[in-house]
Design brief:
The complex is a heterodimer. In chain A, 74% of the residues lie in helices and 0% in strands. Chain A is mainly α. The N and C termini of chain A lie far apart (55 Å). By secondary structure, chain B is mainly alpha-helical. Helix content of chain B is 72%, strand content 4%. Chain B has 26 helices and 4 strands. In chain B, strand 1 and strand 2 form a beta hairpin. Chain B is globular, with a radius of gyration of 31 Å. Classes of the chains: A mainly alpha, B mainly alpha. Chains A and B meet through helix 1 of A and helix 26 of B.
Chain lengths: 104, 625
Amino acid sequence: MSAVPLTAYLMLALILFCIGLFGALTKRNAVIVLISIELMLNAVNINLVAFAKYSINPGLTGQIFSLFTITVAAAEAAVGLAILIALYRNRQTVNVDEMDTMKR
Amino acid sequence: MLQMSWLIPLFPLLSFILLLLFRKSKSESTAWIGVLLTGVSLVMSVGVFLAVWQGEGIKTEGTWFQIGERAITMGFEVNPLNALMLVIVSLVSFLVHLYSKGYMHGDERFPVFFAYLGLFSFAMLGLVLSPNLLQLYMFWELVGLGSFLLIGFYYFKPEAKAAAKKAFVMTRIGDVGLFIGMVLLFWQVGSFEYDEIFTSVKNGDISSGMLTLTALCIFVGAVGKSGQLPLHTWLPDAMEGPTPVSALIHAATMVAAGVYLVAAMYPLFQASEAALTVVAVVGGLTAIFAASIGLMQKDIKRVLAYSTVSQLGYMMLALGASGYVAGIFHLTTHAFFKALLFLAAGSVIHAVHTQNIEEMGGLWKKLRVTGPLFLIGALAISGVPLLSGFFSKDEILASTYADGKYGLFWLAVIAAFMTAFYMFRLFFLVFTGEARGEEHEQKGVHESPGVMTFPMIVLGVLAVVAGYLNTTWFGTFLSDYLAQGPVDLPHGDHHGPAWIPLLATLAAALGIGLAYLIYQKGTLSRDWITRSLPSLAEVIYNKWYIDEGYDQTVVKGTRALSKLGVLFDRYVVDGLVTAVTNGVQGLSKIGSRLQNGQVQSYGTAAIFGIVILLLIVALTGGYFS
């Protein structure tokens, strides 16, 4: 187990976060944007767990915290999807480009 | 009487206002308003003059406004010099008003003409009464306005319009000089008052360089107004105005204002030898230069105009050669005989309806009153003994000689010869020989009405007797009289050697004789000079190409400069403005494109921002380290 160093976890988290960020900023479909946000959250979770295990004072705090994050993320995904559906019903689209009411 | 002298200019002003009210009137009796009111001015002026003759004088002033500790005053002053001017101005103005009653008969804007005459007389009388330079300057400009309005009276003629504009612009160049001189004096002395200026000049409070500079600046004003070289070109063009106007403004009064200004500021000029020399040289050159042009002109009024320029040159020459009395004396006599000549010319024009002397001739028998009067004027201006011009011209020559300016003296003698020649060329061409005009014009030729001949007769008498104001034979009344004034007359015998009057008479006789031989007898062919010196004659006929020269240099130069200015304005100034607006517009376009309502692009911007911040932190090693 100890063969995997902290850097590897952090690299994985970084890559995951960058993919998520890229997806969130470039995809046109609102569903994929939501999924990308989930990716970024999970990258954070990996960081939390990795530091919980490899820090100077290892403990469970990080792992429990990541459990909370997963819960909150689930709730957020549910609310996000609900908003998305409401939006779809109103405007018949999930294309992010067409959602520019902030301009006004 | 003297306390009331401030009323003198107000009567013509009243006439101006009243006539403006009646300007639509068709009745020609409106002229009597002007005639009567200037008549009152004349009577009062004579009263004032007589009082001053007995040695009185007055100066009254009140503070107009205060700048810091310096008070600007307004008021009036009567001294020998301006009392004399008052009489000349109001007399000529009165006579011209009367004459115009006949001359302007049938003109559509009859009352307006008299209103303008009133305005001019007001301004001129006010100018003369001014006790300080500032007040003088105001009236100086008003006089210019009057001249402008009257030259352009026939505004529907393009030449008249152009001439009016030209007169205004050219005199304005001089006015700028006067203004600069005035401001310099105020800076040095702290007052516009003649008296205070003269006191500080006398006490030597002003450095000699500054004295010369101010004197020359003021002289520039006089050059503009009096049509001296090189600003003389407006005066001949001003002949587009009605002839009575030429007699009043461009012969007797306004153009003499420049001479009056130099005379009024004479202590300043006396303090600077260089300024006096400049005045004398400009005067002398103008005298001979204008006389030479007068030899060849074909328009009766233009000959007289160049003659006026030349005579004004004489006056300046006299003043520059310390001949204060001679200058004023010539101003007085010239006012009478030149006004007479102009009015007579007007009468001729009134009779034959042309100004071209080539189309006149044989008028002596038809104009039994005008003819002899014109002859008197011509004899007087030529300097024939016993008439007024002889005495004043003799005095100028004598004082120039006594001042040691021999070159200018001979110039003046030659100019005197030319004067006699062109006046009698005019006389013989107009009044003797065969009538050369068109047939149908000849029948209508008749003498002018009494209202026109009467002023001419008065002026004719004055042109004869005015010379006796100051003679070596009967007494030097004028110089004794002017000696009461603020000017210290240069001492010494100004009557020069006895051969000077003889020389002047000889020059006049030669000129008259030559004109007689050429234009009356026909002994000498008319164009023998023209033929022997064709290029010189060409140059003189074209007025030495001064107008063309100005056109090529000043006018074209100004045009080119203004074109450059337009280009600069269009491409540099406007370019700058458009560059600024374009820049702002471009920026705002980029800005508005950024605010597109897309959360994703906002997010991108935010990420880029934080990346840049992180990069900075990484490269600099962080804020806290």
